[in-house]
Amino acid sequence: MDPPMDFQVVVLAGGTSDKLSPLVSKELPKALLPVANKPLLSYPLELLEASNLKNIIVVVEGDEAATQVESWLSVAYMDRLNVEVVKTPGDVGTVGAIRAVAPFLISTDILIVSGDLVSDISPGAIAATHRRHGAAVTALFCPAPVSGGADSSTSGGKDKAKKPSRCNIVGLDPTRQFLLHVVSGAKVEKDIHIQKRIVRAVGQMEIRSDFMDAHVYAFKRTVLLDVLEKENLYSIKQDVLPYLVRTQLRSEISAKKENSADESSNGATKELPSEDININSAVPSNQNLRWLSQHREIAPSSYQDIHISDCDKNKSRLAKKTHKCCIYLSGKTQYCARLNSVQAFGDINRDMLGEASRITGYTFSAQNNVVHPTVVQGAKTTAGGQCIIAEGTILGDKCSVKRSVIGRHCRIGSNVKIVNSIVMNHITIEDNCTIQGSVISSNVQIQERASLKDCQVSAGYVITAGSEYKSEPLTKR
Amino acid sequence: MAQKKGGKSAASDDPEELARTPLQAVLLADTFNLKFRPITLERPKVLLPLVNTPMIDYTLAWLESVGVEEVFLFCCAHAEQVKEYIGNSHWGQSHAGFSITTIESNFSMSAGDALRFIEGKNVIRGDFILITGDTISNMSLTEALQAHKDRRKKDPDTVMTMFVKRSKPMPLTHQTRLGNDEIMMAIDPETKQLLYYEDRFDCSKRAVTLDKSLLADNASLYLRTDLEDCCIDICSPEVLTIFLDNFDYQHLRRHFVKGLLHDDIMGKKIYTHEIDSSYTARVDNYRSYDTISKDIIQRWSFPLVPDVLYAGNRAQMRLQREGIYKAPDVTLSPSVRIGAFTAIGSGTIIGENSSVSNSVIGELCTIGRNVSIDGCYIWDSVTIEDGCRLSHSIVCDGVHLHTGATLEPGVILSFKVEVGQNITVPAYSKVSLLPQPSKQDSDEELEYADTNSGIIDSPSIASISPANIEHDHVSSFDTEQSVLLEGGLSGVGYIWTSCETGNEEEWRYSVAPIPVEKLKEFYAKMFDEDESSSDGEQTGITHSGELISESKSTDFDDSDGEYKGDVSKFEKEVEETFERALGGVAEENVQLEINSLRMSFNVTHAECAGAVFQSVIKSAIIASNSSKSNLLKATIDAIERSKGLLSYFITNVDEEIEVILKFEEMCMEITREFAPIFSSVLHQLYDKEVITEDAILKWESEKADADESDKVFVKQSEAFLKVFSHLNFSTGVSVLQRLYGAMTSLKLL
Predict the structure, then answer these.
(1) Whether A217 contacts A192, CB under 8 Å
(2) Where would I find the W2 domain in this sequence (chain B) (predicted)?
């Protein structure tokens, strides 16, 4: 395995997001929401561990959530990762979260990962790209999911009428390595303004609206800390990244960076190389070199000589005033999704059963399902393909489970149909129930003959016998 | 030629096109601009020699090579000369690869007019190639033509395929190489449809704005500045109709292309075809003339090179080592030094110890001894006497340089000019026998107008020039047109003042290499642009470099920016109006004018009051001579003078507060000199009853929660405010206000 990189990772685990109500609660923060019977946070953590990125700070919003996450982490990752939990008050935004951990940041580069990322893209590759370019920031972008329809994320480009949802507008250089323009949030729907001189510097900018910011960023620490000093920042995605991208040719942070670099080099043994050295020491491909020469040194070399000889001071000032913003684009075959809505929760769980099952780490049986050996199945009960049933669950007679996830220690009566649903832990489902396309949180009791279609049921809810619900969130009053 | 069958087979492969139309081309033998003045006063641009062959020959040779069967040659300026040339050349003969028809119009002022005229002739039956007579190319058309036809079959709204070429990657070089402006295009990566076109890079706008609908329709697009427009298009017959329908379309790109791109209703589509390896360029100005000549000598345009393409009746030049082209009957003295990449036309004689490098010399020239020629374009029958030095100049037919004359870089000598002994022609001068047309017709607005056509000029040619030529020897010209060659024994010619581009831009379009200082300037300018472009409204960065959160204020950002722009424009207008008012316009009229401005700009009463006040203060600055005591006095005077106007516009408390805020803002930003006397002026305003105590108190309380930096002026006025609240108390007016003020000042402490 590669030696650990000098990267600190900040995982933004969030708190109890409103977008995920009624699934999350104080008892079950977003980070611990089960995805294919594993807490959501375990996905980014496993991914980081696989890249040998083990210095991790997890930022959690809210005290109770933090406690929950901390206790889970201490059991699950105690001996494997160097994890610390930092709590922040709610509603400080991603920038607020980073500000909270700023005192703990010591390594050269910081990787910021969203805690709701379910993906198989190697963060190590992003970190390596970041290092190779000596970038101020490197952001991960993945193809935007196709919107509309329940089975949207699997439908790919089958239906031409369905356009990919527009999450971001990005401008890329011809080699697709550098991020030249980024628009996110509400501005996506507006006219876009692109700075001419950035286009001029590269000659050709590819503008795409079908990529999505996956909320994985590698920052140079000094840059990040500089930016954090500015006011009025709320979100990394909507404020910090656009700011850095916009100012890449007239950087305001670089000058400061130089100083802080000096400071850090005094104390630490590891010296932050200056930008120029970084360019030389990198081993870019030919194309990359060509681009760099265009992007970094706007004047052609012969003219530059004139310039250097004459306006030496000027030149060095100019040279300092740029920083690089890189982009890491995920491949088409790689999976990348963020669990930030109830819809996404359902989609991701289904993807875990289907196309992205490799991420779960389970071994699927010949029937293409995962049934824990301790599961008790009654007579004529069938667990179809793309199912996961966790330990201790008991199924009655003549049950049918298709394309669903069932958690631990559930008691399921006879003649129950569960299709396309997520059933969490410790749930009781009595006889003759039908559950379709629904999410049932832990400790729910569903009495006999109940029928649920496309519902989200909050924890501890009791569904009375014979009741029928369709497309409703059901929460405890 | 070799590729001839390309065009034909492309057309005949198409089974649906049974009634096959021959491939037609419209060749515009007029460029409708003045960039080659003064040379083009006497000869049309398309007949100017490019490495000793008229430009139009290159274009026609290319058209022949790509299989064009019918050429419609549109002539306007100097139509007779063009027609005569075509008639005498082999192009007009029956054995040429195509039939050539000349269409003549004396009234066309632009490419748009020309196309409307051609439409009227009703000769175009199918897709045609639109090209100007100054375009050099060796590309193959087959692929693009086929692609165009395929697209048309799928979508009848396809009207045009534009050829584009990747230019040099360095921004500095690709602009300066051909002297063109940068072009910004947005192209769909898959269909190659042109989505956005912007030429004449507007430096004041630092960002391109792409309409949201563009991205809504296309998931991705390329925004490119690294393309050159080849100025060759494949057009559908509809193009002519569109020109007819839009009678205001003049310029092919600026009006036609942009017009179609902005027009959502018609939905006409323009596509691009990028050529990669072949050569295409257009002689647009002197710089591109220079560049393209060198490209031709270096054989980038093969087979359109001097030793292959030659239609003259004299001996043809042959290629020798080091890129030297020489006609066999050139007479060189043994001591002549010929440098690399030089062409010397037939019948030319060069004397002892002369040196020629990087230059083109035409036919039948006589060059004396000890002459040095570097980077020059010397056309036919030029006489250069001993000891002349020429660098980077264009010397037209029949010019005579007397002994010891020197041409500095960038000089253009038009036909038959004479330069006297030991005269130095300064850099970038343009000399012609014809006087410069008077100012009116060199107006920039006439850029598309074809003053070359002789309608305007011919009287001056007829009446003035003969007289002048006689006078030339004694150098007596009318004063307006500056004259050179003073002191010369036999100088003949007018020096033109550069009217069109302005002197400072001269270097950009000249044949001379760009001086180092200019490059530096240019380079620095590019960075200055970068520096100064804090482009606040779009990017959320204010001038102080602070960042405005986008996530929180996204919805207001853009509209706000626009709005602010309007207000500042409004303020400027008001200021101008006010200045006029100082010149003695009746007050009622000024009121009326400002009111109508207010309505047309749709600004609030308060903003209007602020603007009026600002104008008053600015007039005070002008009146004072920037000393502090003067300033205060001038301000008082200005306020006194405009009291009526101010009280007309400042009617209620809100407007008064706006005025105070405006004043504060001015003191902090534009007119810092007012900062020290802020409180005195405030006092004056109060004394003159322009603003009331209510407004001042409100202003104070408004400022109570502001940042420390914002409170500078409140503090400054503290003494005044104290007196004031005391006064207020005694009169018993607005006790509540006072209380509120007191409370807030408590909070302050």
Answers:
(1) no
(2) 560-737
Q: Sheet containing A137-143: give its strands across.
A: A82-88, A55-61, A7-14, A109-114, A211-220, A137-143, A325-329
Mutation to test the B interface, candidates A172, A200, A235, most B Cβ within 10 Å: A200
CB atoms within 10 A of CB B569: 13
HSE-CB of B580 using CA atoms within 13 angstroms:
14
Residue B489's contacts (CB-CB under 8 Å, 6 or more residues apart) are B402, B420, B421, B473
Residue with tokens 């040779």: B61
The answer to whether A300 contacts chain B (CB < 8 Å) is: yes
A200 and B171 within 8 Å at the Cβ level: the answer is yes
- From CA A361, how far away is CA A50, in angstroms rounded? 12
Amino acid identity of B621? I
Q: Does B543 touch chain A (CB under 8 A)?
A: no
Q: Is B215 helix (H, G, I), strand (E, B) or coil?
A: helix
Phi, then psi, of B484 in degrees rounded to 5: -115, -170
Residues ≥6 apart with Cβ < 8 Å to B373: B354, B355, B356, B357, B359, B361, B367, B384, B390, B391
Chain A residues inside the 8 Å CB shell of B222: 204-207
CB < 8 Å to B558, chain A = 190-191
Residue at B116: amino acid letter? R
Q: Could you tell me which residues are beta bridge partners of residue A463?
A: A446
In eight-state DSSP terms, residue B91 is G
Helix (H), strand (E) counts: chain B: 26, 36
- Which of A163, A186, A203 minimises the CB distance to B224? A203
Euclidean distance between CA atoms A215 and B739, whole angstroms: 53
Which residues of B are less than 8 Å from A208 in CB distance? 219-220
Cα B403–Cα B436–Cα B426 angle in degrees, nearest 5: 35
Task: Please state whether the peptide bond connecting residue B38 to the residue before it is cis, i.e. omega within 30 degrees of 0.
Answer: yes
Distance CA A299, CA A201 (A): 10
Q: What is the pLDDT along chain A (477 residues), one digit of tens a residue?
A: 455 567 889 999 888 777 787 788 777 888 888 888 888 999 999 889 888 888 899 999 888 888 888 888 888 887 788 888 888 887 788 888 888 888 888 888 999 998 888 888 888 889 988 988 888 899 999 887 765 433 333 333 333 344 556 678 888 888 888 888 888 877 777 777 888 778 877 778 888 888 888 889 999 888 888 888 887 888 888 888 888 888 887 766 544 444 433 333 333 333 333 333 333 333 333 343 444 444 443 333 333 333 333 434 444 444 456 788 899 988 888 888 888 888 888 888 888 888 788 888 788 887 788 888 888 888 888 888 888 888 889 988 888 888 889 988 999 989 999 998 999 889 999 999 999 988 888 889 999 889 999 888 888 888 888 889 888 888 876
Locus of tokens 């360019």: A279
- The residues, ordered by sequence, that sit 6+ positions from B410 with a Cβ below 8 Å of its Cβ are B392, B393, B427, B428, B429, B506, B507, B510, B511, B512
| Alpha-carbon gap, residue B43 to B495, rounded angstroms | 18
Q: What does B46-86 look like in DSSP terms, one character per residue?
A: GGSEETTEEHHHHHHHHHHHTT--EEEEEEBTBHHHHHHHH
Using the 8-state DSSP alphabet, how is residue B257 labeled?
A: I
- Tell how far CA B735 is from the center of its chain: 64
Q: Closest to B207 (Cβ–Cβ): which among A193, A210, A294?
A: A193
Residues contacting B108, CB < 8 A, separation 6+: B30, B32, B74, B76, B114, B117, B450
- B185 closest CA partner among B148, B226, B131, B234: B226
Q: Which candidate, B73, B25, B67, B66, places its Cα nearest to that of B233?
A: B25
Which amino acid, one-letter code, is at B139? M
pTM for the full model?
0.67
